Amino acid sequence: MSGTGKKVVDVAFKASKNIDWEGMAKLLVSDEARKEFATLRRAFDEVNTTLQTKFSQEPEPIDWEYYRKGIGSRLVDMYKEAYESVEVPKFVDTVTPQYKPKFDALLVELKEAEQKSLKESERLEKEVAEVQEMKKKISTMTADEYFSKHPELKKKFDDEIRNDNWGY
To answer: For residue 10, what pLDDT band results from cuts at 50, 70 and 90?
Structure first.
């Protein structure tokens, strides 16, 4: 196997080990997202399997002597010379350096969005807890207790009463 092919297989294998498929799957909320995610995972596994099988094996060496016996040495020598003169060009990666800065910038943006999302999630969880607490107490709560928790509403109602605006 060529050095570049081996390197691609090694990188793909390491990448597949670092992917937390179950963790990502838990974050999906819609059925459509789950279907797309399953399709992505299948495609990734297929590519990874192809890389592991096709490109991880050395080709079997040609038994030139076997062919010399059956065909003749002159023709086999001509084919052997042509075979050995074939050079497979080395892969030169010109795309990765071009997109690496963009990818790194997206990772930074992703981390910022993740932090923002976590803060928003925390805020919403607190709000849900407050609403659930309010739901438990609402049947026995007085207007003064409610307005002590929501002074902006008390001010709004007081202003409406003061301005003789009764909402009709």
So the answer is: low
